[in-house]
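Team,

Forwarding the record for the chain on the shared tracking sheet. I've put the sequence and predicted structure together so nobody has to dig through attachments.
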Amino acid sequence: MFFWVLALLIFCGFVWNYKRQLKIADITDKYIFITGCDTGFGNLAARTFDKKGFHVIAACLTESKSTALKAETSERLHTMLLDVTDPENVKRTAQWVKNQVGEKGLWGLINNAGVLGVLAPTDWLTVEDYREPIEVNLFGLIDVTLNLLPLVKKAQGRVINVSSIGGRLALGGGGYTLSKYALEGFNDSLRRDMKAFGVHVSCIEPGLFKTGLSDPIKATEKKLAIWKHLSPDIKQQYGEGYIEKSLDKLKDTNSFVNMDLSLVVECMDHALTSLFPKTHYAAGRDAKTFWIPLSHMPAVLQDFLLLKQKVELANPKAV
């Protein structure tokens, strides 16, 4: 009996793996739209999919980055300036894309644009500190999706949302984690709503990667700017050396940081071209082996492991 069960499991695993390797027939007539192509994952994705033969429409925030990307790619690739937090800009962009793709529709929408915002203890922050990452990472993404969704439905294409392990575990205070948790909910509801239309929706959850988004110098500068305006009570509770100690703790996680951005682009590629794309992709060894498994663990274990990375406060009773 055990032998037959084992044989069935091996057979199912073989079939499952075979299905995952099946690809769509032709990509040279397909259009994809990618946000956040100035740097990082989006920039690499635009260049990669252009080389593969897709008609790439790459949205950048700055003209200089847009010009640089266009200079490095083929005539098929078009660049556009897009601020996802500007509704009128989003509407104009969607209309331009509609005119460009015509009756073929839009095969792929990759929502990659995002900002980190301020990462700091919650009691350091104001509601304004939460707004930017939520406006960009959540409302901007939703606005772009809703405006381009009719074109994706026409092509029976793909929507790919770039989330984060921060959408599974709250690693620090600030709007970034909130925006990614909400993005996961939007992704799940969209996936179920679009199934009847033949549209596949996938979510990519990268671990820690070395990109401009995760620049520790910029993050520290933002923390220092907030520290200057904190009340004397909070400064006494945390201690004058808190930020420096936090940086030292951050160095302990360097072994988790992935340097190869193509790991995320490979997930995008599979979600775009597989006949059977996954609903969720974990990108990076740290995401697969630590963060995602930890997100399924009891809260008491999560708290124990994550709090070990926190700096001990100087005087938490000084309230």
